[in-house]
Structure formats: C-alpha cells, structure tokens
Amino acid sequence: MTLRWSPGYTWNETIWNPSMIDTALWLDAADASTITESGGAVSQWDDKSGNDYHVSQATAADQPTLSTDNGNTSILFDGTSDYLRHNVSTSNIAYPTSSFLVCRNTDAANSGHALSINNSSRSDTYLTLTQRDFSGQSSLFYQIRLASNNPFISAASSFNTEIIGAVSNASDDHELFSNGSSVGTDTNTWPAPQYDNITVGRLRYQQSAAYFIGHVHEIIWIRQSLDLDTRQKIEGYLAHKWGLTANLPAGHPYKLVGPTP
C-alpha cells in the first residue's frame, strides 16, 4: 500500500487513524491502492471501511481526475459532469450520523455538492455535505432533507482547503464544524433520511448546479455517536495528514501533535 502524506508528515503505528473506529465509509486519496485510474482518469475509488461502498464511474467523460492540491494527492472534479457513485439497497440513516470531508472548492460561484448520501428522487430524502455558494454567500452547507421538510445549517467559508465536519448525534442535535471549530448548530427535529446511493462530486438527481468543482482529499462517514475526544481525534488526524494544522483553533488538543490511540 502506497500512502502519500502531506509534505513533512511521517506515518507510524502510534498515530491514531480511522481504522481504529467503526467507519461506514472511508475514501482516502492518499492511499494509491484504493484508486483505479488510467491516464489520470479515475474510474473507481475504493472504500476502506470494509463495507465495500466503492464509488465508481464507467463513463469516461464523467470520470474525475487524479490530481494534486498544495502537494497533496486529490480527486479533482470538473464541476460539469464528473462524479463517482455507489448504489445500495434503500436503507434508513438512523441517527447518529457524522461525516468529515477534506476538500477545496476552486470556484466559489459553483454550488457543488462534494458528498451526497441520498435517495434517487430530489423530492425524497438525502444528506449532503458541501462547499457551495448559497443564496449569494460563500458557505458551507449541511442538510438532511425530507420532501418539504428542508432543514439545514450553513456558515460562511473562504473555500480554502479545509476540514468540514457534520455531526448529528440525535434527530434534534446537529452541528457543523469547519477546521475543528463549531460554525453552526440546530436543535430542530430533522427527518430520518433514506438512501439508495452514495455520490461524490454531485447530488444524485440531475441538476446542473449540483456538481462540485474542486479537489476532494478524504471522506469519512460514521454511523455512531461521537464524543468530543473522538471528533477531535478525527480532526487532528486529518489536519496533520493533509497539512492543515494551521487551520485548527489555538485550543485544539491536536493542533501541535497528532492524536495517538
């Protein structure tokens, strides 16, 4: 297995990593063995969670590109047609559910969805986690939607490479994080979503504004309640791995040293 860490980052067995928790989905662009590509065109990105939620794209014109961003390996989506998907049997997303994403939108005017765990129909349920231009404001966006019930949390974003975290520990306990800092909460009751696919790079349904434009480095989806230490370990792991420690707040326990088991 070949791992491509951020410049200056050294891997060793004492470093905490997501294999030490029960992940539902784990996509890692630093692990070359998980990426199937030809001439840089990515046809499959393998899931490291053990659930085999490998996301793929058979249509050559819609395949994203194996790329680098600030010296780090990434999957680059063009904002026009690129996406990767895994179809599953329809299932409920029972709370809790948490997602973490390292990405950089390269065009703030593009309202792209980087991660979408959703139902095939726009009018049905989905969970999205994205960087997007929302109502004329550059924003992060976290949403779990059921038809007309359309709750969300959004927060201003500069669209630099960042760690986005979305945690729903209960149907009425939702929080959005950027680089280890809370940027929004919601205590209203959100619907229990259903999903029949996992999509990286756009929403499931056809909509031109749904495509993501930019680099995606890593995605972690967890279907368990996260205590403070586990959330901060995930943030610390991602920050040290992708060279984003400067983005963590001064009081973050893993700003200077990566988390250990």
Describe this structure in words.
- The chain is globular, with a radius of gyration of 17 Å.
- It has one helix and 17 strands.
- The strands form three sheets. Strands 1, 5, 6, 8, 13, 14, 15 and 17 form an eight-stranded antiparallel sheet that branches. A six-stranded antiparallel sheet has the order 7-16-9-10-11-12, with no helix packed on it.
- Strand 13 (162-170) and strand 14 form a beta hairpin.
- It starts with 24 loop residues before the first strand and ends in a 20-residue tail after the last helix.
- With 261 residues, it is mainly beta.
- Mean pLDDT is 85; it is low at 1-13.
- The protein has one helix at residues 228-241; strands at residues 25-28, 35-38, 41-45, 55-56, 65-69, 72-78, 84-92, 97-105, 115-118, 125-134, 137-146, 152-156, 162-170, 173-178, 181-186, 194-200, 213-222.
Measured distance between first and last alpha carbons:
21 Å
* Unreliable residue runs: 1-13
Number of contiguous helices: 1
Quaternary class: single chain
Order of helices and strands: EEEEEEEEEEEEEEEEEH
Global shape: globular
Which percent bin holds the helix content?
A: under 10%
Number of domains: 1
What structural class is derived from the secondary structure elements? mainly beta
CATH topology: Jelly Rolls
